[in-house]
Amino acid sequence: MDATAEKFGPKNEELRFWDFQEPPIGSVIAMEFRLVYRGPLSSSSRSNSRATEKHQIRKQLSPQLHQFWKEHPHLKHFLTTGEFLRGPSELGEPQNLVTRLAKQFSRGAHTFVPLVREQDDTYCSLNILFLRRDAPGRIVTGGGDLDNRLKTLLDALKVPQTTDGLPDVVEQGFDPIFCLLQDDSQITSLSVIADRILAPLEAAEREKDVVLVIHVHVYRGTNAAQVTGLPGNL
């Protein structure tokens, strides 16, 4: 995707903004929430796609997304039934929407449930607070080029295209894996504020670990089935 970026601010802070496309005309913000990631975030390249690291990021975000499904007033119904007004069923039964999505988005033995899906005419914008321990003035070079580190993150937010980086055996608690996106083409805009972590290292932390706070706005179109489960066009 083509994008433009702007940089400004004090020496130890940077704001970058990519505007890929406008949200669809008539769309509304259907959901808003934040995800948090703590850990390594290395640059992706043609020679090293960081496939295993991307899956580790997915695993950290999956329980947060699952919790959002369980708490959202409409999404929680899809954990037990395939239709908003139908009676309850158990997770794993054929009519369960999450079960059907998991079968649709399978990669080898692994199954995925994306929240933002093409079939539901949904899109999202991301505002990311990117915290790291690089010295002032090393926002881009420390730990790798910022753009390529963000590529690692964006790839981890979506359903993988192949089984690269996935373990041979499905791990307990990750069947299915909840993802944010079906595909990163559904991101309409991306903004990043990068700054320093001033707190001392904790026992399990490493110097190059980052903390990401990902503010998500999900936009719902007006001409397709809605992710909230409400029938008809709005």
What would your notes on this structure say?
The chain has helices at residues 51-71, 97-104, 146-157; strands at 14-19, 28-39, 106-107, 110-116, 122-132, 177-181, 187-196, 210-220. Mean pLDDT is 78; it is low at 1-11, 83-92 and 223-234. A five-stranded mixed beta sheet has the order 1-7-5-8-2, covered by helices on one side. A three-stranded mixed beta sheet has the order 3-4-6. The protein is globular. The longest helix is centred in the N-terminal third of the chain and has 21 residues, at 51-71. 18% of the residues lie in helices and 27% in strands.
Q: How many separate domains?
A: 1
Q: Mind summarizing the main beta sheet?
A: 5 strands, mixed
Our Rg estimate from Cα atoms comes to: 18 Å
Low-confidence stretches: 1-11, 83-92, 223-234
Overall shape: it is globular
Salient structural properties:
234 residues; alpha/beta; 5-stranded mixed beta sheet; 3 helices; disordered C terminus
